[in-house]
Design brief:
Oligomer: single chain
Strand content: 15-25%
Number of strands: 8
Low-confidence stretches: none
Bound molecules: S-adenosyl-L-homocysteine
Number of helices: 10
Radius of gyration: 18 Å
Structural class: alpha/beta
Distance between the termini: 38 Å
Mean pLDDT: 98
Shape: globular
Length: 251
C-alpha cells in the first residue's frame, strides 16, 4: 500500500471511536469471561489498539497497567489525549511498534488483548509469537474473523480467501490455540450491532467531511466506495461471518 493511500485510510478512521467492529459491552463481556478483575494490578498489552476503544474500557474496568501498541502514531496520539481527558493517563502507556516485532520481555504480561487487529499479521503467527510475552496461566483475549457456518455462498468464500486466507471456523481457530500452547476457555460471536451501530454507521457519518478534506487526492472516492462495499457485503452475509472473540489461557 502506498503512503498516500495509507494516510487517507488513517484520516478516514481516526475520527471515529473505533477502527473495527466491537463495543464496550462486548469488551466487558470478554473481561468477565476471562475471569479477570481489578483485585490485582494486572499488566496488559492491547495489540493493535488504534485510538483505544478497548484500551479505555480495560483501564476503566481493571485499573491495570496497560500498554496500547500500534504502528500508527496518529492513532496513539488520539488515545493518549483521550486517556488524559478521562483521567486514565496513569493506567495507559502507548507504544509505537509493530505487533510482530515487540520489545517486551518474556512473561511480562498477565493479559494480552487484541480486537480487530491480529489478522494484520495472521492469527496463527500472532498467537504463537505473543505467547512468550504472557506469564504462565496468563490470558489471551483476541477477536478474529470467523466463519459462523459450515456452508456459505461461493462468491463469499472467494472474497474472503483473497482478503484474508486464514478465515476459518471457530473449531479450527481453537485448534490453532491448542497447538500453540493455550487452553481455550471461552468463545462468543460479536453481534450485528458491533458491526453496524458501533462501526459502519459512525463511519458513514464521516464520509462527507472526509471527501471535502481530501477532494484533491486521487484515491478519496475509491476509499469511500470500498468501505461502502465492505458494509454491503457484511449486511448481505451477516449470518455467515463475524468476529469471533477467543479467550484462552497459557498452559
Ligand atoms: N483495536 C482497535 C483498532 C482495530 S483496527 C479497535 O478495535 O478499534 C486495526 C489496528 O491495527 C489499526 O489501528 C492498525 O494501525 C493496527 N495495525 C495493523 N497492523 C499492525 C502492525 N503490524 N503492528 C501494529 N499495529 C498494526
Amino acid at each position: 500500500m502506498d503512503q498516500e493511500y495509507l494516510n487517507l485510510l488513517v484520516d478516514l478512521h481516526k475520527h471515529t471511536e473505533r477502527q473495527g467492529p466491537g463495543s464496550a459491552k462486548m469488551t466487558k463481556k470478554a473481561i468477565n469471561l476471562a475471569g479477570i478483575s481489578s483485585s490485582t494490578k494486572l499488566n496488559i498489552a492491547d495489540m493493535g489498539c488504534g485510538t483505544g476503544a478497548s484500551t479505555i474500557v480495560l483501564a476503566k474496568e481493571l485499573k491495570a497497567n496497560i500498554t496500547g501498541v500500534d504502528f500508527l502514531e496518529e492513532f496513539l496520539d488520539i488515545l493518549a489525549k483521550k486517556s488524559n481527558e478521562l483521567d486514565l493517563g496513569s493506567y495507559i502507556n502507548t507504544l509505537n511498534c509493530s505487533i510482530d516485532q515487540l520489545p517486551f520481555k518474556d512473561e511480562e504480561f498477565d493479559v494480552i488483548w487484541s480486537e480487530g487487529a491480529i489478522y494484520n499479521i495472521g492469527f496463527e503467527k500472532g498467537v504463537n509469537y505473543w505467547k512468550k510475552f504472557l506469564k504462565k496461566d496468563g490470558k489471551l483475549v483476541v477477536s478474529e474473523i470467523t466463519w459462523l457456518t459450515e456452508d456459505r455462498p461461493d462468491h463469499l468464500e472467494k472474497y474472503w480467501k483473497e482478503a484474508y486466507p486464514e478465515i476459518a471456523s471457530a473449531s479450527e481457530k481453537m485448534r490453532i490455540l491448542e497447538k500453540a500452547g493455550f487452553s481455550p476457555i471461552a468463545y462468543f460471536v460479536l453481534p450485528e450491532n458491533c458491526w453496524l451501530d458501533h462501526y459502519y454507521l459512525p463511519l458513514n457519518k464521516t464520509y462527507d467531511n472526509f471527501a471535502k478534506r481530501n477532494s484533491s487526492k486521487p484515491h478519496t472516492s475509491e476509499i469511500i466506495q470500498t468501505s461502502k462495499q465492505e458494509q454491503k457485503l457484511y449486511e448481505a452475509n451477516r449470518n455467515y461471518y463475524s468476529y469471533g472473540v477467543y479467550i484462552a489461557q497459557k498452559v
